[in-house]
Amino acid sequence: MSPVDIWNDVLVYPLLTLLIIAYDFVHDFGFAVVIVTVLIRLALYPLYVRQIRSSRGLQELAPALNDIKKKYGSDRAKLNEEQMKLYRERGVNPAGGCLPMLVFLPVLIAMYSAFQQAPKFDGAALQEIVHRYLPFIQVGIPLDSKIDMTAHWLPWIQAAGRDLSQSDPYFILPVLSGALQLVASVMAMPRNPPKTDDPTQRTMQSMTYTFPLLTIVFFNSFPAGVFIYYITTTLFQIVQQYFVMGWGQLPRWLPFLAGVPTPADHEMQRREQAAVKEAEADMEAVTPGGQRRESNNGGGRRRRRGRKR
User: Same domain for 61 and 102?
Assistant: First the structure.
């Protein structure tokens, strides 16, 4: 079996099967793409939440990481040791944000392949593909007909005589996908970004604004259906970030959002208050001379910390 056959059997044809089944219910290929995209995002919801929280944790650690690099920059082993120690203390996994991307990219490429291959199959071939994975499912596509890949709610594509397997003639979907990607990226940035001299952090911040533009310029010829997938998954991401992280830096560009609370605000305030209380307790446990008081409260605090460790 060739690598192309393996790729098709593992990702492309299962994805195409889901699209065909969804199309059989809604009779609109655009809505079928939306349904399948939402199902994928729901299945991967815990993974993406972990990614968002990991990304936010790394952003909050940026000043401390910068200090460690300044202190141990010449000692690579000590630098790595101190960085990992900081990650453990704060409960942050530096690789936590990579796994969702390892899932997202293959699915995106498989979606592109599915839109390239679907117009080549007639109903009989599509039924055969579905039966490979779900032998008990019967789809309503006539055996001697091709699947209708039209999105009836995108009139400018229909007016140009195109379907979702072809590119958007007016680049509306690519521009919309780039704009939404920019919104999601800005929301992922902390509202009060920590100052850092880390070149990696600066590169990531610059990519926030340049990558959406690159998407529009270099990928505008992709099938329109791929952009429906991308737009839907980005909207889902924006909603997730709204609940988990809030507006991020979006109020810098849309000031009216600064006065609109989000579900994430309460959790952020709780964490900030907990950090303040812990700092105050540490200060109260230290005498003016710099020695810890041997009070019952202080001893109890140390014992609690010992048990926690």
Answer: yes
Cα 250 from Cα 173, distance rounded (Å): 22
Residue 162 domain-assigned (yes or no): yes
Q: Do 139 and 126 touch, CB atoms closer than 8 A?
A: yes
Q: In this structure, is the dihedral angle defined by the CA atoms of residues 57, 62, 67 and 68, taken in order, positive or negative?
A: positive
The residue with tokens 């994928």 is: 40
Supply the range of the domain harboring residue 240. Answer: 3-259
Tell whether 268 is covered by a domain.
no
Tokens standing for residue 299: 């001893």
CA angle, 54 as apex, 83 and 96 as ends, to 5°?
80
pLDDT at 304 (0 to 100) = 43
3-state secondary structure of 18: helix
Report how many domains make up the chain.
2
* pLDDT on residue 10: 95
pTM: 0.79
Contacts of residue 179, Cβ cutoff 8 Å, sequence gap at least 6? 212
Say how far apart CA 21 and CA 251 lie, in whole Å: 41
Report the b/e string of 142-179 with b at 16+ CB within 10 A: eeeebbebbbeebeebeeeebbbbbbbeeeebbbbbbe
How confident is the model over 163-194, as pLDDT tens digits? 999 999 999 999 999 999 999 989 888 776 66
CA separation for the pair 240, 187 (Å, rounded): 10
Same domain, 278 and 179: no
CA angle 53, 59, 64 (to 5 degrees): 125
The DSSP annotation for 219-277 comes to: STTS-HHHHHHHHHHHHHHHHHHHHHTTTTTGGGTSGGGGGS--HHHHHHHHHHHHHHH
Q: Average pLDDT for consecutive 10-residue bins of the chain (309 residues)?
A: 92 96 95 96 84 72 77 80 81 68 86 94 94 91 91 94 95 95 88 64 73 88 96 93 86 89 73 57 58 47 43
